[in-house]
Amino acid sequence: MPENVTRVVVGVDGSAGSLAALRQAAGEAAHHGAVLCPVIAWQPPGGEAADAVQPAPPDVCAHWERAARDRLSRACRSALGEDARRLRMRPRVVRADAGPALVACAARETDMLVMGAGSHGPVHRLVHGSVSRHCLKHARCPVLVVHPRAGDAPEKDGATRPPRPPARPPATIPAGLLDVWPARPSGPEPPASAPRRGPRR
User: Fold this and answer.
1) Structure pTM?
2) Which residue in 27, 36, 37, 34 sits closest to 6, CA to CA?
3) For residue 60, how many other CB atoms are within 10 A of its CB?
4) Any idea what the CATH number is for the domain that residue 65 is in?
5) What are the phi and psi torsion angles at 45 (to 5°)?
6) What pLDDT sits at residue 142?
7) d(Cα 50, Cα 80) in Å, to the nearest integer?
8) Which parts of the chain register pLDDT below 50?
9) By CB count within 10 A, which of 121, 144, 150, 177 is most buried?
10) Helix pair 98-105, 131-138: axis angle to 10 deg
11) Bridge-partner residues for 128, per DSSP?
12) Do 146 and 20 form a contact (C-beta atoms < 8 A)?
């Protein structure tokens, strides 16, 4: 785990996995004295391809952006409670696919990217691909994938839940709930290896 972390970027979508990731990211930010940057990504229904064919009016796009901002605020309140006021936070609402948005927000070598496991269902992963897989492949900083604990529930509109304290540094996280990947080395992608041939007979 790097010791010179200056910013902790965490993907938020209101799912149980993302709330667990948000709590863990808050603990990481407090441990390192870093800025906590919760990020929520949104797109028009049907994605940007559908919007390019029939663009939504600006007021409708503004409504979708406000809805994403409200969802991010509710998730922060649900996961962090009053502890959110004691953290240096810079929330971001980004119109983009979640994977590329998180990689772009966590572009520094001194960043840490935290994600929740299993944030989307199989249909979303089939259409949009796995967000965690995209980030693990393209991120230039260390990536933490946090699995939800037993009893974690997704954030719901209008729901009130007792706040939980931020997670402690990763040394205290139960085994099996935290996966750690180091940063990818910078530089061009290595060439694909040639297929192996069987022994000659």
Assistant:
1) 0.73
2) 34
3) 11
4) 3.40.50.620
5) -55, 130
6) 94
7) 36
8) 121-128, 157-177, 189-197
9) 144
10) 40
11) none
12) yes
